[in-house]
Write a structure and sequence with these properties.
About 30% of the residues lie in helices and about 30% in strands. The chain has helices at about 10-25, 40, 60-80, 95-105, 110, 140-155, 255-270, 315-330, 345-350, and strands spanning about 1-10, 30, 45, 50, 55, 85, 90, 115, 130-135, 140, 160, 170, 175-180, 180-190, 210-215, 225-230, 230-235, 240-245, 275-285, 295, 305-310.
Protein backbone atom coordinates (compact mmCIF):
# COMPACT_ATOMS: atom_id res chain seq x y z
CA UNK A 1 0.00 0.00 0.00
CA UNK A 2 1.42 3.38 -1.00
CA UNK A 3 0.34 6.66 0.56
CA UNK A 4 1.59 10.19 1.17
CA UNK A 5 1.07 10.21 4.95
CA UNK A 6 1.00 7.59 7.67
CA UNK A 7 -0.66 8.98 10.82
CA UNK A 8 0.01 7.13 14.07
CA UNK A 9 -2.70 7.70 16.68
CA UNK A 10 -6.40 8.52 16.37
CA UNK A 11 -6.98 10.58 19.45
CA UNK A 12 -8.04 14.19 19.16
CA UNK A 13 -4.73 15.26 17.55
CA UNK A 14 -4.62 12.46 14.97
CA UNK A 15 -8.29 12.87 14.08
CA UNK A 16 -8.09 16.61 13.50
CA UNK A 17 -4.86 16.22 11.51
CA UNK A 18 -6.48 13.53 9.35
CA UNK A 19 -9.47 15.82 8.82
CA UNK A 20 -7.10 18.58 7.70
CA UNK A 21 -5.56 16.18 5.17
CA UNK A 22 -9.03 15.24 3.92
CA UNK A 23 -9.88 18.91 3.38
CA UNK A 24 -6.68 19.38 1.39
CA UNK A 25 -7.25 16.13 -0.56
CA UNK A 26 -4.04 14.49 0.61
CA UNK A 27 -3.66 10.71 0.74
CA UNK A 28 -3.13 9.11 4.14
CA UNK A 29 -3.57 5.98 6.22
CA UNK A 30 -4.18 6.11 9.96
CA UNK A 31 -3.17 3.42 12.43
CA UNK A 32 -4.53 3.13 15.97
CA UNK A 33 -5.28 0.30 18.39
CA UNK A 34 -8.62 2.00 19.21
CA UNK A 35 -8.61 1.75 23.01
CA UNK A 36 -11.72 2.80 24.94
CA UNK A 37 -10.09 4.72 27.79
CA UNK A 38 -7.98 7.46 26.26
CA UNK A 39 -7.77 11.04 27.50
CA UNK A 40 -9.54 12.22 24.33
CA UNK A 41 -12.41 9.75 24.63
CA UNK A 42 -13.24 10.29 28.29
CA UNK A 43 -12.76 14.06 28.30
CA UNK A 44 -15.64 16.51 28.51
CA UNK A 45 -14.16 18.42 25.57
CA UNK A 46 -14.53 21.83 27.22
CA UNK A 47 -13.08 24.93 25.62
CA UNK A 48 -12.82 28.40 27.11
CA UNK A 49 -11.12 31.70 26.25
CA UNK A 50 -10.12 32.01 29.92
CA UNK A 51 -7.81 29.44 31.43
CA UNK A 52 -6.67 28.12 34.79
CA UNK A 53 -6.95 29.17 38.40
CA UNK A 54 -5.28 32.48 37.59
CA UNK A 55 -7.98 33.26 35.03
CA UNK A 56 -5.66 34.22 32.17
CA UNK A 57 -6.74 34.78 28.60
CA UNK A 58 -5.80 31.85 26.37
CA UNK A 59 -2.78 32.21 24.11
CA UNK A 60 -3.79 33.30 20.59
CA UNK A 61 -7.47 32.93 21.49
CA UNK A 62 -8.95 34.78 18.50
CA UNK A 63 -7.25 32.56 15.93
CA UNK A 64 -7.94 29.47 18.03
CA UNK A 65 -11.68 30.26 18.15
CA UNK A 66 -11.93 30.86 14.39
CA UNK A 67 -10.29 27.52 13.62
CA UNK A 68 -12.33 25.76 16.30
CA UNK A 69 -15.65 26.82 14.77
CA UNK A 70 -14.60 26.07 11.19
CA UNK A 71 -13.21 22.64 12.05
CA UNK A 72 -16.02 21.27 14.20
CA UNK A 73 -18.78 22.62 11.95
CA UNK A 74 -16.98 20.95 9.03
CA UNK A 75 -16.77 17.69 10.99
CA UNK A 76 -20.46 17.90 11.89
CA UNK A 77 -21.27 18.10 8.19
CA UNK A 78 -18.86 15.31 7.26
CA UNK A 79 -20.04 12.95 10.01
CA UNK A 80 -23.72 14.00 9.99
CA UNK A 81 -23.91 14.50 13.77
CA UNK A 82 -23.98 17.27 16.37
CA UNK A 83 -20.57 17.82 17.94
CA UNK A 84 -20.15 21.47 18.97
CA UNK A 85 -22.13 22.91 21.88
CA UNK A 86 -21.54 26.61 22.52
CA UNK A 87 -22.39 27.19 26.17
CA UNK A 88 -21.32 29.71 28.77
CA UNK A 89 -19.31 28.52 31.74
CA UNK A 90 -21.11 29.30 34.99
CA UNK A 91 -18.15 29.76 37.34
CA UNK A 92 -18.98 29.75 41.04
CA UNK A 93 -16.86 31.86 43.37
CA UNK A 94 -15.18 29.96 46.19
CA UNK A 95 -14.51 33.00 48.37
CA UNK A 96 -14.70 36.78 48.67
CA UNK A 97 -11.04 36.90 47.62
CA UNK A 98 -11.95 35.26 44.30
CA UNK A 99 -14.66 37.90 43.80
CA UNK A 100 -12.19 40.70 44.47
CA UNK A 101 -9.50 39.19 42.26
CA UNK A 102 -11.91 38.99 39.33
CA UNK A 103 -13.12 42.55 39.88
CA UNK A 104 -9.54 43.81 39.57
CA UNK A 105 -9.16 41.99 36.26
CA UNK A 106 -12.21 43.66 34.71
CA UNK A 107 -10.26 46.84 33.97
CA UNK A 108 -8.61 44.93 31.12
CA UNK A 109 -11.05 45.14 28.19
CA UNK A 110 -9.38 42.20 26.44
CA UNK A 111 -10.29 40.10 29.47
CA UNK A 112 -13.59 41.62 30.53
CA UNK A 113 -15.23 41.10 27.12
CA UNK A 114 -15.43 37.40 27.96
CA UNK A 115 -16.98 37.96 31.41
CA UNK A 116 -20.58 38.40 32.52
CA UNK A 117 -20.25 39.53 36.11
CA UNK A 118 -23.96 39.39 36.96
CA UNK A 119 -25.48 36.24 35.42
CA UNK A 120 -28.91 34.89 36.26
CA UNK A 121 -28.45 32.54 39.20
CA UNK A 122 -28.61 28.82 38.39
CA UNK A 123 -30.80 26.91 40.84
CA UNK A 124 -29.92 23.81 42.84
CA UNK A 125 -26.28 24.87 43.18
CA UNK A 126 -24.41 25.81 46.34
CA UNK A 127 -23.05 29.28 45.67
CA UNK A 128 -22.81 31.43 48.84
CA UNK A 129 -20.38 33.84 47.18
CA UNK A 130 -22.24 34.05 43.87
CA UNK A 131 -20.97 33.34 40.37
CA UNK A 132 -19.96 34.86 37.07
CA UNK A 133 -20.08 33.57 33.50
CA UNK A 134 -17.42 33.09 30.84
CA UNK A 135 -18.80 33.50 27.34
CA UNK A 136 -17.23 32.24 24.13
CA UNK A 137 -16.94 28.81 25.74
CA UNK A 138 -18.55 25.42 25.24
CA UNK A 139 -17.78 21.76 24.68
CA UNK A 140 -17.32 19.22 21.91
CA UNK A 141 -18.59 15.62 21.97
CA UNK A 142 -15.12 14.21 21.38
CA UNK A 143 -15.99 10.56 21.95
CA UNK A 144 -18.77 10.67 19.33
CA UNK A 145 -16.47 12.48 16.92
CA UNK A 146 -13.63 9.97 17.30
CA UNK A 147 -15.90 6.95 16.90
CA UNK A 148 -17.73 8.32 13.87
CA UNK A 149 -14.52 9.52 12.23
CA UNK A 150 -12.92 6.10 12.73
CA UNK A 151 -15.95 4.46 11.10
CA UNK A 152 -15.67 6.86 8.17
CA UNK A 153 -12.00 5.97 7.68
CA UNK A 154 -12.77 2.26 7.96
CA UNK A 155 -15.39 2.60 5.21
CA UNK A 156 -12.78 4.30 3.02
CA UNK A 157 -10.08 1.72 3.84
CA UNK A 158 -7.94 4.39 5.50
CA UNK A 159 -7.88 2.92 9.03
CA UNK A 160 -5.72 0.12 10.40
CA UNK A 161 -6.82 -1.11 13.82
CA UNK A 162 -3.69 -2.35 15.57
CA UNK A 163 -1.02 -1.24 18.02
CA UNK A 164 1.89 0.45 16.29
CA UNK A 165 5.19 -1.45 16.56
CA UNK A 166 8.19 0.89 16.23
CA UNK A 167 10.46 -2.09 15.45
CA UNK A 168 8.61 -2.55 12.14
CA UNK A 169 9.27 1.01 10.95
CA UNK A 170 12.21 1.58 8.59
CA UNK A 171 13.37 4.33 6.25
CA UNK A 172 14.29 3.10 2.78
CA UNK A 173 14.82 5.05 -0.45
CA UNK A 174 13.39 8.20 1.17
CA UNK A 175 10.18 6.37 2.15
CA UNK A 176 8.88 5.29 5.53
CA UNK A 177 8.08 1.56 5.39
CA UNK A 178 5.75 0.05 7.97
CA UNK A 179 4.84 -3.58 7.27
CA UNK A 180 2.98 -3.39 3.94
CA UNK A 181 2.67 0.43 3.95
CA UNK A 182 5.01 2.71 2.02
CA UNK A 183 4.54 6.33 3.09
CA UNK A 184 6.29 9.50 1.99
CA UNK A 185 5.82 11.07 5.41
CA UNK A 186 4.87 9.91 8.90
CA UNK A 187 3.17 11.92 11.66
CA UNK A 188 3.00 10.77 15.28
CA UNK A 189 -0.07 11.85 17.29
CA UNK A 190 0.14 9.40 20.18
CA UNK A 191 -0.72 11.37 23.29
CA UNK A 192 1.14 10.23 26.39
CA UNK A 193 2.23 7.05 24.55
CA UNK A 194 4.87 9.32 23.02
CA UNK A 195 7.07 8.39 25.98
CA UNK A 196 7.44 4.94 24.36
CA UNK A 197 8.35 6.40 20.98
CA UNK A 198 12.09 5.93 20.33
CA UNK A 199 12.14 8.91 17.95
CA UNK A 200 10.44 11.51 20.16
CA UNK A 201 10.82 10.22 23.72
CA UNK A 202 13.41 12.90 24.46
CA UNK A 203 10.63 15.49 24.66
CA UNK A 204 9.70 16.69 28.18
CA UNK A 205 6.24 15.19 28.53
CA UNK A 206 4.81 15.13 32.06
CA UNK A 207 1.94 12.60 31.98
CA UNK A 208 -1.03 13.41 34.19
CA UNK A 209 -3.80 10.99 35.13
CA UNK A 210 -7.34 12.29 35.07
CA UNK A 211 -10.51 10.65 36.35
CA UNK A 212 -14.06 11.56 35.33
CA UNK A 213 -17.56 10.43 36.19
CA UNK A 214 -20.84 10.15 34.39
CA UNK A 215 -23.69 10.77 36.83
CA UNK A 216 -27.46 10.74 36.74
CA UNK A 217 -29.12 13.65 38.50
CA UNK A 218 -32.82 14.43 38.16
CA UNK A 219 -34.17 17.98 37.98
CA UNK A 220 -30.77 19.65 37.53
CA UNK A 221 -31.91 21.68 34.55
CA UNK A 222 -28.98 23.63 33.17
CA UNK A 223 -27.58 24.21 29.69
CA UNK A 224 -24.43 25.84 30.98
CA UNK A 225 -21.13 24.30 31.98
CA UNK A 226 -20.88 24.48 35.76
CA UNK A 227 -17.46 24.95 37.38
CA UNK A 228 -16.24 25.13 40.93
CA UNK A 229 -13.09 23.08 41.44
CA UNK A 230 -14.63 20.51 39.10
CA UNK A 231 -16.79 20.81 35.98
CA UNK A 232 -20.31 19.59 35.35
CA UNK A 233 -21.40 19.18 31.71
CA UNK A 234 -24.95 18.24 30.71
CA UNK A 235 -24.76 15.37 28.21
CA UNK A 236 -28.41 14.44 27.63
CA UNK A 237 -31.59 13.81 29.65
CA UNK A 238 -30.52 13.46 33.31
CA UNK A 239 -26.91 12.52 32.56
CA UNK A 240 -23.86 14.70 33.24
CA UNK A 241 -20.10 14.38 32.92
CA UNK A 242 -18.10 15.38 36.02
CA UNK A 243 -14.36 15.91 36.29
CA UNK A 244 -11.60 15.96 36.65
CA UNK A 245 -8.76 14.90 38.91
CA UNK A 246 -5.07 15.60 38.41
CA UNK A 247 -2.69 12.84 39.50
CA UNK A 248 1.02 12.95 38.64
CA UNK A 249 2.25 9.77 40.35
CA UNK A 250 -0.31 6.96 40.07
CA UNK A 251 -0.04 6.80 36.27
CA UNK A 252 -2.36 4.01 35.22
CA UNK A 253 -5.71 3.94 33.42
CA UNK A 254 -7.63 2.35 36.29
CA UNK A 255 -10.08 4.51 38.29
CA UNK A 256 -8.98 4.90 41.90
CA UNK A 257 -10.85 5.14 45.18
CA UNK A 258 -8.98 8.37 45.87
CA UNK A 259 -10.19 9.91 42.62
CA UNK A 260 -13.76 8.74 43.15
CA UNK A 261 -13.87 10.11 46.68
CA UNK A 262 -12.50 13.47 45.51
CA UNK A 263 -15.10 13.88 42.77
CA UNK A 264 -17.97 12.73 45.02
CA UNK A 265 -16.94 15.22 47.72
CA UNK A 266 -16.69 18.07 45.21
CA UNK A 267 -20.13 17.18 43.83
CA UNK A 268 -21.76 17.23 47.26
CA UNK A 269 -20.20 20.68 47.80
CA UNK A 270 -21.57 21.86 44.45
CA UNK A 271 -25.17 20.63 44.01
CA UNK A 272 -28.17 20.37 46.31
CA UNK A 273 -29.66 17.33 44.59
CA UNK A 274 -29.00 13.60 45.00
CA UNK A 275 -27.04 11.91 42.22
CA UNK A 276 -26.12 8.43 41.05
CA UNK A 277 -22.70 7.51 39.67
CA UNK A 278 -23.18 5.68 36.38
CA UNK A 279 -19.60 5.37 35.16
CA UNK A 280 -16.09 6.07 36.42
CA UNK A 281 -13.21 6.37 33.91
CA UNK A 282 -9.52 7.23 33.99
CA UNK A 283 -6.91 8.07 31.36
CA UNK A 284 -3.52 9.73 31.00
CA UNK A 285 -3.21 13.25 29.57
CA UNK A 286 -0.26 14.22 27.34
CA UNK A 287 0.91 17.37 29.09
CA UNK A 288 4.22 19.08 28.33
CA UNK A 289 6.63 20.69 30.77
CA UNK A 290 5.79 24.23 29.59
CA UNK A 291 2.06 23.46 29.06
CA UNK A 292 2.21 24.29 25.35
CA UNK A 293 1.59 21.91 22.43
CA UNK A 294 4.39 20.46 20.32
CA UNK A 295 4.32 20.44 16.52
CA UNK A 296 7.02 20.19 13.89
CA UNK A 297 9.56 17.81 12.35
CA UNK A 298 12.09 15.48 13.92
CA UNK A 299 15.54 17.11 14.29
CA UNK A 300 17.32 14.51 12.14
CA UNK A 301 14.81 12.07 10.60
CA UNK A 302 13.50 13.22 7.23
CA UNK A 303 9.74 13.62 6.74
CA UNK A 304 8.89 12.60 10.32
CA UNK A 305 6.49 14.89 12.19
CA UNK A 306 4.70 15.24 15.51
CA UNK A 307 1.48 16.80 16.81
CA UNK A 308 1.12 16.27 20.53
CA UNK A 309 1.00 17.86 23.97
CA UNK A 310 -2.53 19.26 23.71
CA UNK A 311 -3.20 18.53 27.39
CA UNK A 312 -6.48 19.70 28.92
CA UNK A 313 -7.10 22.29 26.20
CA UNK A 314 -6.99 19.91 23.27
CA UNK A 315 -10.41 20.72 21.81
CA UNK A 316 -9.43 24.38 21.48
CA UNK A 317 -5.83 23.82 20.38
CA UNK A 318 -6.13 20.90 17.95
CA UNK A 319 -7.74 22.65 14.95
CA UNK A 320 -5.14 25.42 14.73
CA UNK A 321 -2.23 23.08 15.53
CA UNK A 322 -3.28 20.69 12.74
CA UNK A 323 -3.57 23.58 10.30
CA UNK A 324 -0.19 25.04 11.24
CA UNK A 325 1.52 21.65 11.01
CA UNK A 326 -0.04 21.00 7.60
CA UNK A 327 1.02 24.48 6.43
CA UNK A 328 4.53 23.65 7.61
CA UNK A 329 4.66 20.29 5.83
CA UNK A 330 3.01 21.26 2.55
CA UNK A 331 3.80 24.96 2.21
CA UNK A 332 7.04 25.26 4.24
CA UNK A 333 5.52 27.91 6.51
CA UNK A 334 7.45 28.52 9.71
CA UNK A 335 6.07 27.46 13.09
CA UNK A 336 6.10 29.92 15.99
CA UNK A 337 8.74 28.90 18.51
CA UNK A 338 6.18 28.89 21.34
CA UNK A 339 4.66 25.71 19.89
CA UNK A 340 7.50 24.36 17.73
CA UNK A 341 9.37 21.19 18.61
CA UNK A 342 12.54 23.21 17.98
CA UNK A 343 12.24 24.86 21.40
CA UNK A 344 13.36 21.52 22.87
CA UNK A 345 16.39 21.02 20.63
CA UNK A 346 18.68 21.04 23.67
CA UNK A 347 16.81 18.02 25.07
CA UNK A 348 17.52 16.13 21.84
CA UNK A 349 21.19 17.08 21.91
CA UNK A 350 21.55 15.94 25.51
CA UNK A 351 19.85 12.63 24.80
CA UNK A 352 21.60 11.86 21.52
Amino acid sequence: MKTEFLIVGQGLAGTILAHEFLKRERNFVLIDEFRENTSSKISAGIFSPISGKRMTKMWNIDELKINLSETYFSLEKLLACKLLYEQNIYQIFGSVKEQNDLTLRLNDSNFSKYININPKAEKDLKQPFGAFEINGSGWVDVNLMLNNFANLLIERNLFIKQQFDYADLTFQNKKWIYKNIEAEKIAFCEGYKNNNNPYFNYLPFVPCKGEVLVIKCRNLLTEKIIKKGIYLVHLYDDFYKVGATYEWNDLNETPSEKGLNFLEQKLTELINLPFEIVKNSAAIRPTVKDRMPIIGSHPTHENMFILNGLGTKGVLLAPLMAKLLTDFILDKKEINNEISIDRFSNYFELGS
